[in-house]
Specification:
Number of helices: 19
Number of strands: 22
Mean pLDDT: 90
Shape: globular
Distance between the termini: 49 Å
């Protein structure tokens, strides 16, 4: 299904959403025993494994353990929909995109979409909202709804207020992070990690010049292939990512960059070599890559001191790879085809992925020895039992001694230890000779946070941030299947969950190394030089942002 064009996909998939909206997409009804099983599984895991529990209790006065205990007393009297929404609300209240509850649904692997992208520009206190990309549909073509129109209202709610309403339901430790994620969920919603939209259609008021118009656009559903990380159980243990955002990213690629989508589909199906030498790309043209789903690179032109200059541009869309060696090798190959003096590395909206891939990449840009991020486990009887299990010897043995010592020392966390072998972080060395600037935003998350932290903490180059900081996802995340395997044979093992029920959980807490040694990433993120996007950025290929980056690199050098 996912290999169809957007137009064909719309026609064939539109029927799924109406079914989902009528029945909320539920395919399994949980009886009283199943509901109790869900809660009785989650309580000891939140109390004994969830690595951010002390921080969330302090920062948000949120206690998921007590909330679940209270829910247990009344869950049998609830409808299925009420029960799943209650559990989802408790988990989402932690403001942690790593930690998600997934109820039964007939829409696994699908994303609910509207055929356009909403973005904001201007100062955070007075943002303006425009449509930056549109896929052609019958409703769009008839109404004059096009790229560049300014949005006035959403379902008759003033636009700024509508975004704030969605933001209140989103993860994110800061207001700007929740707003950034709300802008995504306006038009893209992963049905793996949340319910379908409440409404069948969205009524939008917008301005064309000085004329106010209105359009009604129905939600549709697109099918998205599983994440690369999810197909490799070994590297999945080294994941730091927002899986819902990864699904949304792929849906955007299908809708707005079909050429990249087709290139990746052909590569993964083995229909193209992908590594053959291609003719040198002209300025402004993408360089051919074997990883089009996660990388793009080109030489761009921008203004600097009144003159036109060329600068390299590397976009890392995601770290969702299962081969960190191949990923780093491909990035290095692309760098050799870009201008050697100046480079923009763009990590905006990168939802994370394989920790090894993100941290190994840093060495290509610096002469410094890169110190990888370190990770701690919550020191509890549950994590100690996990570390003592022979099954987890290779994965958790390094943390066992400090977890055992915590019984007598009272330490809240284990000793922090890297997940990436420090030797891997300088086994290639610097290959890009020029100066480079990193661009991030509040949707740069998880392994994206780790990359940004390493960039800042090793002084690799300037860091420009749209918004206050990166998305602030500071953990290694496991799913219920990994946790079930890790706890098998311990006093804390749990029975299989009811069909269709899944969860992900932050397991190992990330703290920064280098110049910010010991500082947590969760809820804080990585700050940099502030920059507010302009209308020209959204509609003319980041024109002003590129110019700002060029000036920043000139001053840095």
């Amino acid at each position: 299904m996912a290999d169809l064009s957007w137009e064909a996909a719309s026609a064939q998939r539109g029927k799924y959403l109406s079914v989902a909206l009528k029945g909320r997409g539920l395919v399994t009804t949980l009886g009283p025993e199943d509901r109790l099983k869900v809660i009785d599984t989650l309580i000891p895991l939140f109390e004994g494994v969830y690595c951010h529990l002390p921080q969330k209790r302090a920062g948000y006065a949120a206690d998921p353990v007590q909330a679940l205990r209270l829910l247990r007393q009344r869950c049998i009297e609830m409808t299925d929909g009420e029960f799943h929404l209650a559990v989802t609300g408790i988990v989402t209240g932690l403001r942690d995109a790593h930690t998600r509850y997934v109820g039964p649904s007939g829409l696994r692997g699908k994303v609910a979409v509207l055929p356009f992208l909403v973005e904001s520009y201007g100062p955070q206190e007075a943002p303006r909202f425009i449509v930056s990309k549109v896929a052609k549909t019958a409703e769009v073509e008839k109404s004059g709804f096009a790229e560049g129109v300014e949005l006035v209202s959403w379902n008759y709610v003033p636009m700024s207020r509508a975004v704030d309403v969605y933001a209140a339901q989103e993860t994110g430790g800061r207001r700007d992070a929740r707003r950034a994620r709300a802008l995504e969920t306006l038009t893209f919603r992963s049905l793996d990690y949340g319910p379908p939209p409440d409404e069948h259609k969205v009524n939008i008021e917008f301005m064309v010049g000085r004329t106010r118009r209105e359009v009604c656009i129905p939600w549709r559903v697109v099918g998205i292939p599983a994440a690369t990380l999810g197909r490799n159980s070994q590297v999945a243990l080294k994941a730091a990512w927002n899986p819902a955002a990864e699904s949304v990213r792929k849906a955007k690629t299908l809708m707005f960059a079909p050429a990249a989508w087709d290139a990746n589909r052909l590569r993964t199906s083995g229909s193209t070599a992908g590594t053959k030498e291609a003719p040198a790309a002209a300025v402004g043209e993408d360089i051919e890559t074997s990883l089009p789903n996660v990388l793009s690179a080109r030489t761009i032109e921008t203004k600097l001191d009144g003159k036109r200059v060329t600068i390299g541009y590397l976009r890392i869309w995601s770290f969702d790879v299962d081969d960190h060696e191949g990923f780093v090798t491909e990035v290095n190959r692309l760098l050799q085809q870009l201008p050697a003096d100046r480079l923009i590395v763009d990590l905006r909206a990168n939802p994370g992925g394989l920790i090894w891939a993100a941290e190994r990449l840093l060495q290509l840009f610096t002469d410094e020895t890169v110190l990888p991020t370190r990770f701690s486990l919550l020191a509890t009887p549950v994590t100690r039992a996990m570390a003592e299990s022979a099954f987890n010897h290779l994965e958790l043995d390094a943390w066992l001694e400090s977890l055992t010592d915590a019984v007598s020392t009272g330490e809240v966390y284990s000793q922090p230890i890297p997940l990436t072998d420090p030797e891997w972080c300088h086994d290639i060395g610097r290959t890009y000779p020029g100066v480079a600037v990193l661009v991030v935003d509040p949707n740069t998350y998880s392994s994206g946070d780790l990359f940004a932290a390493g960039w800042a903490d090793h002084g690799i180059g300037p860091l420009i941030c749209i918004g206050q900081a990166t998305g602030a996802g500071g953990a290694n995340v496991w799913g219920d299947l990994q946790l079930s395997e890790a706890l098998t044979g311990t006093p804390f093992e749990f029975d299989p969950l009811p069909d269709g029920v899944h969860f992900t959980m932050a397991i190992r807490r990330a703290i920064r190394s280098g110049r910010s040694d010991g500082v947590p990433i969760e809820d804080l993120g990585i700050r940099g030089i502030p920059y507010a996007l302009t209308r020209r950025d959204l509609l003319e290929g980041n024109r002003d942002l590129h110019s700002f980056c060029a000036r920043t690199l000139r001053d840095w050098a």
